[in-house]
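Write out the 3D structure for:
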Amino acid sequence: IPLQVLTLPTSPYPDQRPGTNGLRKKTHVFQSEKYYLHNFIQCIFSSIDLRDRQGSTMVVGGDGRYFNSTAIQVIVQMAAANGVGHVVIGQNGIMSTPAVSCVIRKIKAIGGIILTASHNPGGPDGDFGIKFNTASGGPAPEAVTNKIFQLSRTIEELAICPELRVDLGTIGKQSFDLENKFKPFTVEIVDPVESYANSLRNIFDFAVLKELLSGDNHIQICLDARHGATGPYVKKILCEELGSPANSAINCVPLEDFGGGHPDPNLTYATDLVETMKSGQYDFGAAFDGDGERNMILGKHGFFVNPSDSVAVIAANIFCIPYFQHTGVRGFARSMPTKVARATKIQLYETPAGWRYFGSLMDAGRLSLCGEESFGTGSDYIREKDGLWAVLAWMSILAARRQSVEDIMTDHWRTYGRNYYTRFDYEEVDLDAAVEMMLDLELMISDRAFIGQVFTVGEKKYQVEAADNFEYSDPVDGTISRNQGLRIVFKGGSRIIFRLSGSDSFGATVRLYIDSYEKDINKLFQDPQGEARPLIFRHCQVL
C-alpha cells in the first residue's frame, strides 16, 4: 500500500536564522518545541526550486550526537514528501562533514543536510545543529541562508510522510512507494568512509605514508577522535590501510555525548592527549572535533602547533603533497593572512570567519589551500574544512623532510618569522551586552586619534597602523559581507581582532584573537609553548 503524504499546518518561530555553520540550539529546543525541527527542514526544501527538487538526490549525515538518528528519520520523511527522489545516508546516520561534502560532489547531489553542532558539547543537555550544504558541497552561501530564514518567518504548512521508516544500520538500498508518486522513493545506506577514502588516495601518496607509519623506521603517532564522527575514518584509513597500530587511535567509537567530553580539539579540552604527548612516547599527535572538520597538531613532548602556523607550514611545503604537484597552486586564503603567500608570490585572500567564503573562491578556481584560526584547514578537493586531510598533509611533510614536528616548525620561523598567537573565548555572555561592547569598541578605534597610538608591552612597542570593522567584498561575485570583526592592525604585522561568533546555541560568544609578529632571530624561540592556549570563559559579564 503506498505510503500517505500529509500536509500539516504549522506556525513560524522567530529564531531560526542560520549562523555561519547552520542553525544551532540546545537539543531540548529541537525535541520539545512542536515542529521546530520540521519547520527548519521544510524551509530548507522550500528554498530549492521545485523543478530542481523533483527526483533529485540529497546526502544526509551527522556526527552521531544525541538526537541524530531521530532527526534523520524526520528528514527522510520530509524529503520524500517534498519530491526528493533519492537520499544517501551514512551507515547508522554517521558521516563526517568533509565526507558529506565529498559525496555531494562525487554523486552530483542537489545538496546535503548535516546534523552537527561541530565542536559544541552533545547529549540531552548539549547542543544540536542542522547545516545545509549546496550542490558545490560547501555551506550554503548567505543568499541561501537568508532565504531559509525568511521562509521560516512565514511558514504555514509542512509536507511529511510520517509512516516512512528507514533502517539506518543496513548498507544497501530501500525503496518506498508513495501515494501520487510514479517512481519509488529510494534511500541508500552507504559506508561513510569509502568514497571519502578514495578521494584521499588520489591526493596523497599512501605508499609513502604507509612507510612512514609502519615501515622499518616508522614514527609513533597518537590520534584522538574524541568520540566524534572521525573515529571510523581514523581506524579504517590510518590503522587498517596505512598500518598504524590499533592502539595509536583513541576515542574512536562515536558516542551521543562524546563520552561526556567537549569535542573541541584544543589545549583546553584535549588535555588527555596533551599529557600523553608530553611523555615523549609519540612523535606526532592530533585531535579532531565532533564532525571531523577541525584538527590540532602536536609534536613530541607535547610541542603545540598553533592553527595559524599549521596552515602556513602546509603552504610552505605544499608540493610535498602529490595532488598539488599535478594541479599547481592557485591561491591561499585564511581569516588572518600569512607571510608565506607574500614570500612565494602566490595570491592571498583574507576572508571573514566562515568556510563559505572560501568556497566561492574555490568554485572560481582561485584557491587551493585555506585555513582559520579556530583549528580549521582544508583544500579545494572539497568545500569544507577537513581535519583528517590536514593530518595527512602534515604526515606527507614529515615523510618528505624526515624531521620532527618541532624542527619543521623552528625552520619555518627562521625563514618567515613567527606569529605568537593566542585566543580568548568568552562564551554564553548576554547578547545585548556583547553587542553594546562591540559598538563602544568600534567607536573608540574609529577615532582618528587612535591611528598612530603606541602601546608598549615589555620591550616591544606596537604602533597602530589601521583599525576598522572588517568588510569583505567577494572578488568573484562582488557580494559584500559587513561587520565581520573589529581589527586593530599594528606596524610590522601584529594584530588584535574582536569578533562576535555566529556558531552558538545560547547567548553570544566574544572571540578575541591576538597575533604578535616577531622577526628578530634572537626572540623567535622565547617561551615556545607559552602561547595559543584558547582560554574559555563561560557566563561572563561583559563590561
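The chain has three domains: 6-191, 195-416, 418-540.
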